[in-house]
Amino acid sequence: MKKKLTFFLLLTISLLGFSQNRQTTIQGTIVDESGVPLAGVNVLVKGTINGTQTDFDGNYTIQASSGDVLTFSYIGMKTQSATVGDNSTINITMQEDAAKLDEIVVIGYGTQKKSDLTGAIGSLSGEGLDKLQVADPSQLLLGRVSGVRVESVGGSPGAPTNIVIRGVSSLTNSNPLFVIDGVFTDNMDFLNPSDIKSVQILKDASAAAIYGSRAANGVIIVTTNDGKGRDGMTVDLEVSTGFQSQIKKLDWLTGAEYAQLRNEQTIANTPDGQTPLLLPGFNEKLDPTVNTIIDDIAISSAPVTNMSVRVAGGGEGISYDVSANWLDQDGIIVASDFDRKTFRANMNINKGKFKLSESLTFTSTYRNKNTIWNLGNNILPTIPFRNPDNDGGFGGANLEDHGFDGSNHIGRALLQDRHETKDNLLGNVNASYEIIEGLTVKANLGLQYFVSSDYTFTPTFFISDAINANLDEAALIDRTTKYVNLLGEGTINYKKTFNKHAFELLGGFTTQKTTTNQGLIWVSGFPSNDIRQASAASTLVQTGGTEAVNTLISTFGRLNYNFAEKYFITATIRRDGSSRFSEENRYGVFPSIGASWIVTNEDFLSDNSLISNLKLRASYGELGSQSIGDYAFIPVLNINSDAVLGTGQGRTSGVSQTVFANPNLVWETTKTYNLGVDLGLFNNKLTLTADYFDKQSEDILVALNIPPTSGTTIPVAQNAAEIQNKGLELATSYSNSFGDFNFNVSGNITFINNEVLSLGENVAPITAGPNSTSTVTRTDVGGEVAAYYGYVVTGTYNDQNELDADLAAGLADPNAQLGDFRYEDTNNDGILDLEDQTSLGSYIPEFEYGFSIDAQYKNFDLNMIFNGVAGVEIWNATRQANLLSLNSNLLRDALDFWTPENTDASLPRIGGGANNARSSSFYVEDGSYFRLRNIQLGYSLPAKTIEKLKLRKLRIYGSVQNLFTITNYSGYYPEIGRSRDDENLVVPNTNVLFFAGIDQSAYPTPRTMIMGIQIGF
């Protein structure tokens, strides 16, 4: 990277030095048609990288030679040019460009003026995208677009992000379709955020139906920088560095306090007349100097560095944009870090009727994952993190001294080599030709190819006799994936305008083939912990490999029509055929229609001084989903099955069916209604967008359990559910300027109601939990998807008579004693049983919101992004280990447990057999929060100064992410997401959708402070 930066700097210096021959100083003033000076107008010597900008008085100076052509460009204005002659002063009056004043947005297979849209589309573009320094570009959407929920899986570097558009409407996959430079993908985490030019979110059916079977969860279209509109070459460098720190520390007991608590509990639980058997580890063998606190040994500040270089330019029908980026991020938790290197090259050729473009992005990532952080606090505070009696090895509990054998999971994480590597290539080539005026044919070829390895090497070690606390033979597990996605598309587009009529017809086809190869090798027994190659192992434990191929073929058409720029209609239809369904059910048809009326273009509102824009929108459409595994309609056979046959009972090789098939699977269909209004006031300084939507998904695909008597426990895919999401989205923006001060304030809020309407005939509610015996969430008719489920705690038993009465009536746990939890008889049947479990809340917020402030004063700029959620609950599963269990360290709140002297305690008695740790409202906490997501302050050097430095721009900035968060949540941080990033947290093969909002000690989100510099040549 350093060599590349040095090369670009030397190249720039040499070009600037050459351009100084025979130059004179040209100066002037740039104004608009009203004579108002324009600040920030780009002034460039055509064919060179020599450029500058006007100051706040519209003045500029630039070095140029006689005969040079100066170009003047400004957003919303027509680009102008002037030739340098004998006059050293060149003044320019810029003229408004009506086409540029009406924002152009990217839609499926084309672009459209925002004023012409009939659907609901969220948009982010321009410089606002580079104000947030994030590793995953999905974070750019957080709190910025109504109806879009971004679920972060804690703060682990490189951790995946879930995006949900307009609520969870499926039980298999709630993620949207991503279209990056024309290529379909499942995510965008491999992109460098600074490479993104614009992001469009297609939210309703009118906008998204052109993508048919892939659009049920919405569509996110990402366009990367392409160099269009540039004249000459520019070079941009950016370097930022900073550090991350823990936002909140939990208040753990000290070693001495924990030992005292253990002893008190032993004494309290010893029957009268017997001598308490105090464990040596908390008495005579206790070292009072030992105080092992998880936050101190596992969490620390961590650096983050980001470097980018970009070369862009164009001229004579050719434009290009090439960039490279390196992100190096350590995690605040030990044994976690992330490294990403990205290279991107985009090019466009425009030769009249023929246009050709290519886009290529290559990303290489290395991620070290601490997947057992959630088990970290099991090391007791009385045990040294490193044991001096074990050659400095890691300490752990043992049965003789502590009553149980315990591992040291932080030590295990440091011993273990657990990392994930991924090389990803995304590219496409797009060619178009205008046959006659208005008639254009296009061809698009796309490719995504990646190879990944999830590698784990666990060396021999001994911490204690506990399971997972020792290993006699080193083991290596490597899971590999190779993914190839081939896309071919052809479209024909015809535009025509006559009189007051304008229409655009689009027709096309898509063919896509995806091949996934997965492999597994698991070996053990190595001559040394330093030798970590599979070929050196002595024992082959397991190998495996699968290949899955699926294809999709589609035809589609769209009509855009408007009359007199007042009345607009968009009609779309798409027919998809998927290999994931049987021949009888292979094809699905997905139509949509949308209409809008620009009321302000009517005569009765055309001269209104208050209302500058008023548009009404309505749409209906159907979208599809094929989110099931490949070959779900085909039986799976095991060709290595043996059977015992005959009188001799001999084993005979054979074939057996191990997975049942469902040939009757059909497309999952989502029907969406949308009503919207766009309002602009005071010459569009104040804008408001409101959308009401009703999205109902039918024939939802879900894998459901079947009776084990069938011979297999593997779930079978079925069309078995209906889910409805209804909601209201509001977004507003206000822009104005006062002298040198310019600002924009924008905000949005989203209200969503999620309800399961049906689970099909004879289908039991879908339950999930952190293990096979614990139910935490329940998806049932009339409730929300993955609603929390359990008993309602009403207090503790303080009165023996009350306890005896409840025991006699069956309203208490049979083993209940004074100090145990008392539970509500929710169905009032006079007995406490499983039927008294009920819904306890949900991770789905009643509403979520965000707002941002952008301001500029002279050379200073300020950006602030806020976001929050309300009416949301978190299932804090850590409360069991941190407050109720003596087999791990406890929080200071655990001292407020029930005793006969402390009957008003917030916690039940510790220990006992009444199962106080069962799923209940004890774990449910308010997860609402409001935070300053990001604040960035920047300063750009004045035009005269950067001109002397021979630069195009120089900006320095400082930013802080998560500066403050207002919340009542007792855990590390209220941003939980889904626990899909750690296979230790969920039951294998369980859909992680049902684990959203469950905090099993999620990786804490850090506070990040960054300083950076941007240099332009």
Give the helix/strand class. Answer: mainly beta
Report the count of strand segments: 56
Number of helix segments? 10
Strand content: over 45%
Radius of gyration: 32 Å
Mean pLDDT: 87
In words, what does this structure look like?
The chain has ten helices and 56 strands. 8% of the residues lie in helices and 48% in strands. The protein has a 22-stranded antiparallel barrel. The radius of gyration is 32 Å and the shape is globular. The chain is mainly beta and 1017 residues long. A hairpin with a 7-residue loop joins β26 and β27.
Quick structural overview:
By secondary structure, the protein is mainly beta. The chain has 10 helices and 56 strands. The chain is 8% helix and 48% strand.
Overview features:
10 helices, disordered N terminus, 56 strands, 22-stranded antiparallel beta barrel, 8% helix, globular, 1017 residues, mainly beta, 5-stranded mixed sheet
How do the strands and helices of this protein lay out in sequence?
Elements: H1 2-18, E1 24-31, E2 42-45, E3 51-53, E4 59-64, E5 69-73, E6 80-83, E7 92-93, H2 98-101, E8 104-107, E9 110-113, E10 121-125, E11 148-152, E12 161-165, E13 177-180, E14 183-185, E15 196-202, H3 205-208, E16 219-224, E17 232-246, H4 255-268, H5 294-298, E18 302-315, E19 318-330, E20 337-351, E21 354-368, E22 386-387, E23 393-394, H6 399-402, H7 409-415, E24 417-436, E25 439-458, E26 461-462, E27 470-471, E28 475-498, E29 501-524, E30 539-563, E31 567-578, E32 587-598, E33 611-625, E34 636-645, E35 650-659, E36 668-681, E37 686-698, E38 701-704, E39 716-719, E40 722-738, E41 741-758, E42 766-768, E43 777-779, E44 787-790, E45 793-796, H8 800-809, E46 821-823, E47 838-841, E48 847-857, E49 860-870, E50 873-876, H9 878-884, E51 924-926, E52 929-940, H10 943-948, E53 953-961, E54 965-967, E55 998-999, E56 1006-1016
Parallel strand pairs: 1-7, 13-16, 50-55
Antiparallel strand pairs: 1-4, 2-3, 2-5, 5-6, 8-9, 10-15, 11-12, 13-14, 15-16, 17-18, 17-56, 18-19, 19-20, 20-21, 21-24, 22-23, 24-25, 25-28, 26-27, 28-29, 29-30, 30-31, 31-32, 32-33, 33-36, 34-35, 36-37, 37-40, 38-39, 40-41, 41-48, 42-43, 43-44, 44-47, 45-46, 48-49, 49-52, 50-51, 52-53, 52-54, ...
